[in-house]
Write a structure and sequence with these properties.
The protein has 199 residues and is an alpha/beta fold. It is built from 8 helices and 6 strands; from the N terminus they run E-H-E-E-E-H-E-H-H-E-H-H-H-H. Helix 2 packs parallel to helix 4 (116-126) and helix 5 (135-142) crosses helix 6 (148-157).
Length: 199
């Protein structure tokens, strides 16, 4: 599969949002499409409030993403989207939640939070290719706030940026998540696809 165009995807959020679950599901969906994939956690602890950054690399030789190399940035939390922007290549794709889940530093008053307009401004300096979704609200609509991560993944599969269809992601959810949360996550996926198609 050496003819696969390399695609570097960076995912960022805060602990407790399901960023790592989303990373695993996306990597498994890419594998299900028969493509070579590597995934990993850059740094951060999956504790509530801690920053979590991870990668999914499709058809890449190097297992890491350097500054200015990510083709796609998935931001499960707007402040983390903004912080990760140095990794995005010029004109790369950004999909970000519009709803804040302040990291520990903000919750403890050590740092100011930013507004969604400030986040959009920083993103716009690098790319005009961006979409914003109310992920937590979509998760709640599906039945669980944590399912917001699947809404963002669903939106990604509705773009032509990755060789993964919403159907493949749905099958991956069914095969890899506990039965009791499958329906909620499938609903979130559907809402994410719908939200992107309506932007």
């Amino acid at each position: 599969m050496s003819n696969t165009k390399p695609i570097r995807i960076m995912l960022t959020g805060v602990g407790g949002q399901g960023t790592l679950t989303a990373t695993t599901l996306l990597a498994k969906a890419v594998l299900a499409e028969g493509l070579p994939v590597t995934s990993g956690e850059i740094h951060g602890m999956a504790q509530r409030g801690g920053v979590v950054e991870s990668t999914v690399l499709i058809g890449c030789k190097s297992p890491k993403i350097g500054l200015g190399e990510a083709d796609v940035l998935l931001g499960f939390e707007p402040l983390e989207t903004m912080r990760a922007m140095p990794y995005l290549r010029k004109d790369g794709l950004v999909l970000s939640s519009t709803e804040f889940l302040p990291p520990l530093s903000v919750a403890m008053g050590k740092q100011e939070n930013v507004s969604i307009d400030q986040v959009k401004e920083v993103v716009a300096q690098c790319t005009g290719n961006s979409f914003y979704l109310p992920c937590q609200s979509l998760g709640l609509e599906a039945g669980a706030v944590q399912a917001g991560n699947l809404a963002l993944l669903g939106a990604l599969t509705a773009t032509d940026a990755v060789p993964v269809s919403p159907q493949t992601l749905a099958e991956t959810i069914k095969a890899n998540l506990p039965a009791k949360i499958v329906d909620v996550n499938l609903k979130a996926l559907e809402l994410g696809v719908g939200a992107l198609e309506n932007t």
